[in-house]
Amino acid sequence: MERIEHRAAAGGWQSVYRHQSATLGCAMNFAIYLPPQAENGPVPVLYWLSGLTCSEQNFITKAGAQRYAAEHGVAIVCPDTSPRGDEVADDPGYDLGKGAGFYLNATQTPWASHYRMYDYVVSELPALVEQHFPVTAARAISGHSMGGHGALMIALREPDRYRSASAFSPIVAPSQVPWGEKAFGAYLGIDRQSWSAWDTVALLSRPQTHTPVPLLVDQGLADEFLEKQLRPELLQAACDAAGHPLQLNLHAGYDHSYYFIASFIGEHMAWHAQALRN
Ligand SMILES: N[C@@H](CCC(=O)N[C@@H](CS)C(=O)NCC(=O)O)C(=O)O
User: Fold this and answer.
1) Most exposed: 121, 150, 166, 200, by fewest CB within 10 Å?
2) The ligand 1 atom nearest the CA atom of 225
3) Which residues line ligand 1 (CB under 6 A)?
């Protein structure tokens, strides 16, 4: 593992590391923010999953989350959004292939050989982080858009691994919207039955056997993708039907950008910090 960036931020350190991922079969970058409290002992971790076209850089340079992470004593780990490198399959569209891994394990050629972002985010990356950095095994997960889909879906599938899950502007039902239909069709194939295991709204209709992971979602009402791709009303209905705890906040005037995330990331950090303290 090689450290490729290291900067003081909000009393702690914002770094980027590069490592060889066995799960993805390629070199990957991830960002980690360690708050000042990590100097004195291990701290809990929030995993942040970014959206389409992003890398590990977008959140650390645009969200302004470091000051809140320092306030609450929480580390933040940001993986990239797909496998990378010349040997990795890609597509000319911004919404498939590199930058668009959708946090699932692909089953179809040519994607299946590298596109295993679910296993990377859920297993390989936390094991690596917990081995090399002063962090505890108390984890929370959050993300934006495609990464909001990833955070909610992962928390529903792995309730033992995460204390809390939140999302900004998430794709809540990828099986029912164009972004998800394109990606799931490519990565998982035409059998839509296989899609439901990776779809938040579909997962909520399954019988829940664990204590549910509480969900916090913020959505801008001036979001250019709201009606066609995001559809938060489907999440509200699915959570109501399942009795799953959801706080959905709708905000007039805000769009899909990182200006929206930066405006409310403080509230998300405080909410996760409380769950991570328990
Ligand atoms: N239409 C946009 C879609 C991509 C987009 O809006 N990506 C969001 C996540 S879904 C993002 O975070 N972009 C990078 C940024 O704002 O820093 C494009 O073609 O780039």
Assistant:
1) 121
2) 6
3) 51-54, 58, 62, 94, 144-146, 256-258
pLDDT (tens digit per residue) in 114-155: 999 999 999 999 999 999 999 999 999 999 999 999 999 999
Burial 223-243 (b: 16+ CB within 10 A, else e): bebbeebbbbebbeebbeebe
Q: What is the pTM of this model?
A: 0.98
State in Å: Cα 56 to ligand 1 middle: 14
Looking at residue 247, what is its pLDDT? 98
What's the confidence (pLDDT) of residue 209? 84
Distance 40 CA to ligand 1 centre (A): 37
Nearest CA to ligand 1 atom 12: 51
Peptide bond into 83 cis (omega under 30): no
Q: Which domain holds residue 211?
A: 2-277
Express as a percent the part of the chain with pLDDT over 90.
98
145 C-alpha to ligand 1 centroid (Å): 9
Residues designated catalytic: 145, 223, 256
Quick one: tokens of 124? 């390989």
Per the CB < 8 A criterion, the answer to whether 260 and 201 are in contact is no
Domain count, the chain: 1
Torsional sign, CA 219, 220, 221, 222: negative
Burial-class residue 139 by CB neighbours within 10 Å (0-12, 13-18, 19+): buried
Max alpha carbon distance in the chain (Å)? Answer: 51
Task: Find the CATH number of the domain harbouring 38.
Answer: 3.40.50.1820
